[in-house]
User: Fold this.
Amino acid sequence: MLFGYLRLELRRTVRDGGFLITSLAAPVVMYLLFSHMGSGHPTHAEQVRTLAGMAGFGALGAVMTTSGGIAEDKKAGWLRQLRLTPLPAATVVVGRGVSAMFLALPPVLAVGSLAGVVNGVSLSAGEWAGLLGVLWLGIVPVAMLALGCGYLIEGAKAHSVGLASYLLLAVVGGLLIDTRDLPHWLSRVSGATPVNRYKEIASDLALGHTPTLTALAVLLAWSAGLTAFAVLGYRRGGATA
Assistant:
């Protein structure tokens, strides 16, 4: 049942080719710009963190577009039809969540390819797998946030909330700005966000470091909490669709 619903959502996603523009253009251009800023040659660690930040920025933007899409589905009656099927709420949320995560793959792979081909970032096969795998799978809490917002918020407001969340998480989470350049109090807030820990874990794996238990715990806690938020949003939002 889950796989059937997942195939349906993926087909609907692929038909909307517009996501490729929004999810690819910004991170690719910004990666090429940010990776060539400054007069000196960046260290390997700086190159990896820039790669993780820009790929994560693209993944974040791609999945947050889902909130607006779900709001439009609700307006069109799609959620009402889903509630008439025997699909459990958890199955619907997981299927739509995986579909949203599919959107994160193009920017992650595009920025990773540019890093290797254009900027000469050299990693072992295991380090590339760890980096790209976390940059994709670690976006789960953000995908769940987008789903919850889409289910609970109506129409254009869902688009606005998705855009605001995208920009806020990108800055506070340290994807666009090194958290050492943030005010002290804000850098402490950053460490509690799933986006910051997501970038940290991906970078650590690429640099041959073991991710900290704190980073893993923060990411897992946000994943569990926001999955519950998405399921609650589907039940409440679907009931009023």
